[in-house]
Design brief:
Layout (H helix, E strand, L loop, with lengths): L17 E5 L4 H12 L3 E5 L3 H8 L6 E2 L9 H13 L4 E4 L14 H29 L3 E5 L14 H19 L5 E7 L20 H14 L3 E4 L1 H12 L2 H12 L2
Parallel strand pairs: 1-2, 1-4, 2-3, 4-5, 5-6, 6-7
Helix pairs in contact: 1-6, 4-5
């Protein structure tokens, strides 16, 4: 909020709002698609897996399935043009596609590192490059970038994932400064632990773990507030924000105690 005013234009009425959701097939993306469909949004659903998208579209009346791979830069213009031909414009673009593999420093390989960055960072930046000209031409619209609290500060087992999400925080801030004066809203979503196929890889207790439907509700509520950053669950994310304020000689021991690593 800026002096009591929301930083973005609040998104409250989803009836007939045109939403392109990238990374929609599972987890937070699928839950958000179902929630927005319930509220009357017109959905274009993108991810690599056609079968999962078709199953999701069956739960979202009127949804259009437009498969794509965010690691293939040419896919974004192709799908964007298909959506514009269908709707004539787009109101909200949710860039949610991501990947995660627990990775310590000694487990890094060039292939794993590049796959993570291609999906989590370049896969978002390519999406931004594809849609921003259209939003500017419209003079309205919203970009929703899904990051992670793993981007707040260094964590064990996040040698590739954490940096990719930290870069998204910087990206969203930069986009906001450029686009907000021109009528385009930019939202940063920073989830904590959400029960998805990706977090199922973790072999440790995940504090404040929530379900995808809870995450979708938090995102919808944050968009309705016009908040720049939508972070949840707050009992966990606020703690992570506090830890990031500590000097390193306190931050590193606190993280080690918290994770046991």
């Amino acid at each position: 909020m800026a002096f009591g005013r929301p930083l973005n234009t609040p998104v409250r009425d989803w009836q007939c709002r045109r939403v392109w959701l990238v990374g929609a097939s599972t987890g937070i993306g699928a839950a958000l698609a179902r929630r927005l469909a319930e509220q009357g949004a017109r959905l274009a659903l993108s991810a690599r897996g056609r079968e999962k998208l078709d199953a999701l579209a069956a739960q979202c009346p009127g949804a259009h399935v437009v498969p794509m791979d965010v690691t293939q830069p040419q896919d974004y213009p192709r799908v964007r043009d298909e959506i514009l031909a269908l709707w004539g414009g787009v109101d909200v673009v949710v860039l949610n596609a991501g990947t995660y593999a627990p990775m310590r420093a000694w487990e890094l390989t060039p292939d794993l590192l590049r796959h993570t960055l291609d999906t989590n960072l370049l896969g978002v930046m390519d999406g931004v490059a594809a849609v921003v000209p259209q939003l500017l031409e419209q003079g309205s619209g919203a970009l929703v970038i899904v990051g992670s609290v793993a981007g707040y500060g260094g964590l064990p087992r996040a040698a590739a994932y954490g940096p990719s999400k930290a870069a998204l925080i910087n990206l969203a801030e930069s986009l906001y400064l450029d686009l907000a004066p021109r009528g385009i809203s930019v939202f940063l979503v920073s989830p904590g632990f959400v029960a998805t196929p990706l977090t199922a890889q973790n072999d440790f207790r995940m504090p404040a773990l929530i379900q995808p439907d809870e995450a979708a509700d938090a995102i919808v509520a944050g968009l309705a507030r016009g908040a720049f950053e939508i972070h949840f669950p707050r009992r966990f994310t606020c703690l992570m924000k506090f830890l990031r304020l500590l000097p390193y000689h306190l931050y590193f021991p606190a993280i080690r105690r918290a994770t046991g690593l």
